[in-house]
Write a structure and sequence with these properties.
alpha+beta; Nuclear Transport Factor 2, Chain: A; 6-stranded mixed β-sheet; globular; Nuclear transport factor 2 family protein; SnoaL-like; NTF2-like_dom_sf
């Protein structure tokens, strides 16, 4: 993939539109816009393939952290069809961020995300 014209901040903005969608319908539309049909998403707690599985995973996270918002931290950067970015999961009540991570994604020629490799830098204790 050529990097000419790749707008990495927009790619990441679409990524977080999917993760912040509050309804199943919004989530499905946002996932379809941001990710390829055969997307793979892997982090220490999840390993899914396909848009439906990713949308379900996002829905599960949204249920565990109702009202929370994923926010990019820093400036996304990329090269050769790769983009990396850091993020926080922010609590609406007090602005705290109990979860934080770092993701690396590969893109297709249209700038849609094909794979995500996620790393969790901060997670709350499991109950």
């Amino acid at each position: 993939m050529s990097d000419r014209g790749t707008d990495y901040p927009t790619v990441v903005q679409r990524y977080f539109a999917a993760w912040n969608a509050t309804t199943a319908e919004e989530r499905a539309k946002a996932v379809a816009a941001a990710f390829t049909e055969d997307v793979t998403y892997t982090d220490p707690l999840a390993d899914v393939r396909g848009q439906d599985a990713l949308a379900a995973l996002i829905g599960d996270v949204r249920q565990r952290f109702p009202g929370f918002e994923f926010r990019v931290t820093g400036t996304p950067d990329g090269h050769h069809g790769l983009v990396r970015f850091t993020w926080d999961l922010v609590a609406p009540a007090d602005g705290s961020a109990p979860v934080a991570g770092f993701d690396v994604a590969t893109l297709d020629d249209a700038g849609r995300i094909r794979t995500v490799s996620g790393f969790l830098d901060r997670v709350p204790p499991q109950a």
